[in-house]
């Protein structure tokens, strides 16, 4: 279609979709719906210009003409990578998470006494950032709104500490988590969400860890595999777990941490042959590769890998593709933990109307679970995502301590793909393509 005759029906469909989306957006009072509709209409328009009319996509972001002291990256409005823009941070200000200052992307002053300022050297890109850019991340919309500076993971050097702060001093190399605001050269972070970078870990490596690791630790805790020392309960022996996408960001951490939390056997599932060895290196006892196999075939291998028994825990971020079967492969008393719906997010880089329809179709096919059956089976289904962080400061503090201890003992840090701040569009496209290996980290 790129080279030539425009298909009339396509134009009419696109025009109508965009017009309907814009009109609903204008009359809608629901922020989330509104943003999603804006995202749909913007991405449909971008797709139309690029794929149908053959116009080049602008490759943002370029440096702003007048740079301030420091820079941050913001998403102007829901849409494609063309919405990413570099902005100057006013002198003395920082970007910040929404738990520090709600509905603002920059922090000038705060009543909070625990804010440490960090000159950021690296931050990581997570799939959630793509969801924010597409207008699909509810807590970003509710707590910040657009424009928004996304970003959860940072590392860098402490540039100022609040009075009385004993944990850090100016010049300390630290890493940590922020609830948005991480795509920046200077971030204000509560001390509780920061730790010193353990010896032997690079700043880029440290910036790749918090979001995926804290997600993995929380998943294990709610699955009944609390890190040793966090629970006084005596746990049964011979317990096995299944990790989908075992070579992924969270998956790779789940595999390593499950062993540390007392799992006897870890079965990992991967999509490609070249990832099998990597997962064995992480500690999987059995790795099942889906490549070239039917669903029934690879599930059979999973069963054999667990000697026909059910799993005490299954960790699944695939979405409709596997949720139901994952549940069916739980042991009595087992728990299925869902922390995302990746296979059914769109993977095409220019979001076209077809991928939006596919997402909708995926949502419609999401299985439902019968509470009474869950009681009778004693099986559980649990879901969560990073948005719970805000008021759970004690819990997060403990998770961070556990993680820091494990990093000191030596965990495998994912392979890092480094990009510059001006290449963030490329970084987003890579993570969205589903073809990236390891973590994507941006150096500032
Ligand atoms: C996480 O929660 C936010 C709402 O705060 C939601 O918009 C987002 O889609 C959730 N992510 C996943 C993977 O469920
Ligand atoms: C942080 O960045 C500012 C501005 O670039 C610089 O003046 C300051 O020395 C840096 N602080 C540290 C501890 O590196
Ligand atoms: C653990 O499970 C395996 C396989 O089912 C079994 O052979 C073994 O005896 C079990 N060990 C314990 C301590 O229950
Ligand atoms: C956290 O607490 C604040 C203040 O009580 C409240 O407004 C906010 O909704 C809470 N956030 C969550 C995610 O529960
Ligand atoms: C609607 C949709 O996108 N469904 C897809 C969900 O993921 C599975 C596995 O990748 C696909 O087979 C479905 O087509």
TrEMBL record:
- Please report the stretch or stretches of sequence annotated as the Enoyl reductase (ER) domain: 79-442
Tell whether Calcium is among the UniProt keywords. Answer: no
Keyword annotations for this protein, in alphabetical order, are: Membrane, NADP, Oxidoreductase, Transmembrane, Transmembrane helix
Lineage runs:
Eukaryota, Sar, Stramenopiles, Ochrophyta, Bolidophyceae
Q: What is this protein called?
A: Enoyl reductase (ER) domain-containing protein
Q: Which organism is it from?
A: Triparma columacea
Which positions, given as ranges, span the membrane?
Answer: 9-27
SMART domains in UniProt = PKS_ER (SM00829)
Q: Name one GO molecular function term.
A: NADPH binding
Q: Name the InterPro entries for this protein.
A: ADH-like_C, ADH-like_N, ER, GroES-like_sf, NAD(P)-bd_dom_sf
Tell me if Electron transport is a UniProt keyword of this record: no
């Amino acid at each position: 279609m790129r080279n030539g005759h425009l298909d009339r029906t396509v134009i009419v469909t696109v025009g109508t979709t965009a017009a309907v989306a814009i009109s609903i957006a204008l009359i809608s009072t629901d922020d989330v719906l509104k943003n999603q509709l804006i995202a749909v209409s913007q991405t449909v328009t971008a797709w139309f210009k690029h794929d149908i009319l053959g116009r080049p996509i602008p490759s943002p972001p370029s440096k702003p003409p007048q740079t301030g002291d420091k820079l941050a990256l913001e998403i102007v409005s829901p849409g494609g990578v063309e919405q990413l823009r570099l902005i100057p941070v006013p002198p003395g200000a920082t970007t910040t998470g929404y738990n520090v200052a709600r509905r603002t992307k920059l922090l000038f002053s705060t009543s909070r006494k625990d804010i440490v300022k960090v000159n950021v050297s690296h931050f990581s890109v997570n799939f959630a950032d793509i969801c924010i850019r597409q207008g699909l991340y509810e807590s970003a919309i509710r707590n910040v709104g657009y424009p928004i500076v996304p970003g959860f993971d940072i590392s860098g050097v402490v540039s100022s500490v609040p009075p009385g702060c004993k944990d850090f001093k100016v010049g300390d190399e630290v890493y940590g988590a922020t609830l948005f605001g991480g795509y920046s050269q200077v971030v204000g972070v509560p001390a509780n969400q920061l730790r010193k970078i353990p010896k032997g870990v690079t700043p880029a490596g440290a910036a790749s860890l918090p979001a995926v690791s804290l997600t993995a630790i929380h998943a294990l805790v709610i699955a009944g595999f609390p890190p040793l020392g966090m629970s006084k309960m005596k746990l049964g022996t011979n317990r096995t777990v299944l990790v989908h996408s075992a070579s992924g960001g969270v998956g790779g951490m789940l595999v390593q941490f499950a062993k540390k939390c007392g799992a006897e056997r870890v079965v990992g599932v991967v999509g490609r042959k070249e990832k099998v060895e990597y997962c064995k290196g992480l500690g999987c006892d059995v790795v099942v590769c889906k490549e070239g196999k039917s669903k029934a075939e690879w599930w059979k291998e999973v069963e054999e890998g667990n000697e026909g028994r059910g799993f005490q825990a299954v960790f699944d971020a695939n979405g409709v593709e596997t949720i139901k079967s994952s549940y069916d492969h739980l042991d009595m008393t087992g728990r299925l933990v869902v922390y995302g719906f990746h296979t059914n997010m769109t993977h095409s880089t220019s979001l076209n109307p077809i991928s939006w329809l596919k997402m909708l179709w995926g949502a419609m096919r999401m299985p439902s679970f019968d509470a009474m059956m869950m009681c009778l089976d004693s099986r559980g289904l649990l879901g969560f995502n990073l948005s719970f962080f805000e008021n759970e400061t004690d819990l997060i503090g403990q998770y961070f301590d556990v993680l820091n201890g494990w990093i000191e003992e030596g965990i495998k840090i994912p392979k890092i793909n480094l990009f510059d701040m001006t290449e963030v569009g490329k970084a987003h496209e890579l993570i969205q393509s589903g073809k990236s290996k390891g973590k994507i980290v941006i150096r500032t």
